[in-house]
Specification:
It contains 8 helices and 12 strands. By secondary structure, it is α/β, with parallel strands linked by helices. The protein folds into 2 domains: 149 residues, NAD(P)-binding Rossmann-like Domain (Rossmann fold); 104 residues, Dihydrodipicolinate Reductase, domain 2. The strands form 2 sheets. It has a 7-stranded parallel beta sheet with strand order 3-2-1-4-5-6-12, with helices on both faces. The structure holds nicotinamide-adenine-dinucleotide. The site of nicotinamide-adenine-dinucleotide has 24 residues, from α1. Homotetramer. It comes from Acetohalobium arabaticum (strain ATCC 49924 / DSM 5501 / Z-7288). Its main location: cytoplasm. It is found in: Cytoplasm.
Length: 265
């Protein structure tokens, strides 16, 4: 059966990729595109996609009541994402959320909403399957190598630092690593030169145009180093994860946080 989907934030960098994903993937159909710009324009024409006309709408609630979709995919902004989730759930619609900035307190709220709505929400701060594997492999390595540092590299429009993925990786390493005490009293000649610290892990954030989303996890042990690196070369890298989330909606309950929960290891 075809899954009918609304993309919220359809004209954004990620939203556009999701619109294209739905168009090229059997079993999915874009039924509405919501954004705050180019209202009334045909999203497919704007993106150069050969597909039936879908006009851009400005109001998610209206788009839902017109089309009664199977799911909403949201890639908007941290400022509006909670409002969007509430709107979707109030209308009993399952949601796939890629927008970042959702806190633990927000998740508690979303859990309450899903119970009332009997709808499901999959939230993934990182939809790149390779990035999830990088985190898993890093946690495996951390059991055997007792020093680690993270370098995360992103495009220069990224607002937050370090990335959520870097923090999550450090948390996973800290859970299992027998960290050794630093043997030297470091002198930081330029403040921040050693990066920020999450537990025992130093995280360094690089911001440059030309980059998309990249991370290296460097491990040190006696007489050896190990480097685990993931590169999202373009935003299409996130689409297999979005597809997996849409396909998994039928099998999950309530709120699922993290793409890793949908993957088998
Ligand atoms: P973007 O700025 O290119 O796109 C955001 C879009 O949302 C814009 O078109 C904007 O007009 C629209 N928008 C803003 N408010 C809206 C509202 N109330 N209703 C509908 N549309 C609205 O940003 P982006 O690069 O596409 O990223 C979007 C979000 O996804 C960010 O939070 C980003 O951090 C996150 N992101 C997540 C992943 C992941 O794997 N989960 C990957 C990349 C980016």
């Amino acid at each position: 059966m075809t899954k009918e989907v609304i993309v919220n934030g359809a004209l954004g960098k990620m939203g556009q990729e999701v619109v294209k994903l739905l168009n090229r993937t059997d079993g999915f159909k874009l039924v509405s595109a919501v954004d705050k710009v180019d209202i009334g324009e045909d999203i497919h024409k704007l993106l150069g996609v050969s597909a039936p006309v879908v006009e851009i709408e400005s109001d998610l609630a209206e788009a839902i009541s017109k089309t009664e979709p199977d799911a909403v995919v949201d890639f908007t902004t941290p400022q509006v994402v909670m409002e969007n989730i509430e709107t979707g759930l109030e209308n009993g619609i399952n949601m796939v959320i890629g927008t970042t900035g959702i806190t633990e307190a927000d998740i508690d709220k979303i859990e309450d909403w899903t119970e009332e709505a009997e709808a499901k929400v999959i939230i993934a701060p990182n939809f790149a399957v390779g990035a999830i594997l990088m985190m898993k492999f890093s946690q495996m390595a951390a059991k055997y190598l007792d020093q680690a540092e993270i370098i995360e590299l992103h495009h220069d429009q990224k607002l937050d630092a370090p990335s959520g993925t870097a923090i999550k990786t450090a948390e996973l390493i800290n859970e299992v690593q027998n960290a050794t005490e630093k043997e030297v009293d470091e002198i930081e000649k330029i403040i921040g030169a050693r990066g920020g610290e999450e537990g025992n892990i130093n995280i360094h954030s690089v911001r440059l145009s030309g980059l998309v989303a990249h991370q290296e996890v460097l491990f040190g042990g006696v007489g050896q180093t190990l480097k685990i690196r993931h590169d999202s070369i373009n935003r299409r890298s996130f689409m297999p994860g979005v597809k997996l989330a849409l396909e998994s909606l039928d099998e999950v309950d309530g709120v699922v946080y993290g793409l890793e929960k949908l993957m088998e290891f």
